[in-house]
Amino acid sequence: MIFTELAKTLPDYAKDLRLNVSSLVAEQLLTDQQKWGTFVAVAHACAYKPVIDAVEAEAATKLSPEALTAAKAAASIMAMNNIYYRFVHLASRPDYKTLPAKLRMNVIGSPGIDKADFELFSLAVSAVNGCGMCIDAHDKVLAGHGMAAEKIQAAVRIAAVVHAVARTLQAI
Predict the structure, then answer these.
(1) Given 70, 131, 152, 156, which residue is catalytic?
(2) For residues 69 and 60, what is the distance between their CA atoms, to the nearest angstrom?
(3) CA separation for the pair 116, 83 (Å, rounded)
(4) Phi first, then psi: what are they for 97, rounded to 5°?
């Protein structure tokens, strides 16, 4: 089952989510790689297998194998980084801000796809995971690549809707 079909199984009280899925699938601000890579990265961040499978099925013809791997890598590395950097940001003790992370993050420097696209996936996952420090860092990199705020917002809208679909389906 593809994601747009899975969204149709949402209960009537989640009608807005169904409508939002339709509009985001048709979103024209992002390239297919940006759009579907964001869908895949966020689905993995939500960690709900039916959503992951449905998103990957729909993205299969729209993403290269490299982009699919990069989207999964963004979800994976942000699962680690968002926890670590959220701790650094929230902890009162200033020492943590000066200590090196000592965590491997090689995929960020060499994601196998366009760096800006990987940063976009990472920002969307960071929004789901609630790490303001990471959101700011990825937003700054994206601004440096000339990415418009509207494109970034589109990716975060995808993150919000995929997350809401996963949560809603888990609850029924």
Answers:
(1) 131
(2) 12
(3) 22
(4) -70, -20
pLDDT in tens, 23-37: 999 999 999 999 999
Domains in the chain, number? 1
Q: Which of 83, 73, 11 is nearest to 37 (CA)?
A: 73
Is 46 considered catalytic here?
A: no
Mean pLDDT taken over the chain = 98
Query: Domain range for residue 160?
Result: 3-171
90 CB burial (10 A radius; 0-12, 13-18, 19+): exposed
d(CA 100, CA 102): 6
Closest CA to 17 of 165, 166, 123: 165
Prediction pTM value: 0.97
Mean pLDDT value of segment 50-60: 98
CB 68, CB 151: distance < 8 Å: no
Domain containing 71 — which CATH number? 1.20.1290.10
- Is the separation of the CB atoms in 112 and 70 below 8 Å? yes
Of 134, 135, 158, 166, the catalytic one is 134
Give the pLDDT confidence score for residue 47 in this predicted structure: 98
pLDDT of residue 151: 98
pLDDT the model gives residue 142: 98
